[in-house]
Design a protein that fits this description.
By secondary structure, this protein is mainly β. The chain is built from one helix and eight strands. The two termini are 18 Å apart. This is Tail tube protein.
């Protein structure tokens, strides 16, 4: 639901998937942030011309969501148990789907990600429980 031709927070959905645990659609996303990581290089040559390179080396980010079920807690409990049992921890694919201002859909996948549950939530009185996940991934690929 863009507003005056500009994307707003309601325009995004997020899904996690891996080969072991399947798909988890993240409901009620409150915020999303993804940043491209780059290896910035410079060459200061004797010819007096400075040259710069920017090598993409992955993505990292985080998102917060309101806890609507045990899905996120169960997912990370399964990852932790797999680690404790000496099993392979699968890489995760994160799919970001955006409804653009003109009504079209853009979709991106962050691939070869590792994820971390930064907060399983702060439980207090009459308040919503907000969880936070962060990720690091190899690259982002446009799907549509």
């Amino acid at each position: 639901m863009p507003l005056v031709g500009i994307s707003v927070g309601k325009d995004i959905t997020v899904t996690l998937s891996d080969d072991v645990n399947g798909f988890i659609t993240i409901n009620r996303v409150k915020n999303w942030n993804a940043v491209q990581r780059n290896n910035k290089r410079e060459s200061i040559a004797l010819d007096g011309v400075n040259r710069y390179g920017n090598f993409p080396i992955g993505w990292e980010g985080s998102f917060e969501m309101e806890r609507t079920s045990a899905d996120v807690d169960n997912y990370f409990a399964a990852l932790e148990l797999a680690y404790q049992n000496g099993e392979n921890i699968p890489l995760v694919t994160i799919t970001e789907t955006i409804t653009e201002a003109d009504g079209t859909i853009s979709q991106y996948q962050f691939q070869n990600c590792v994820v971390q549950l930064d907060s399983s939530g702060n439980w207090s009185g009459d308040d919503y429980v907000t969880q936070k996940i962060s990720f690091s991934g190899s690259f982002r690929k446009q799907l549509i």
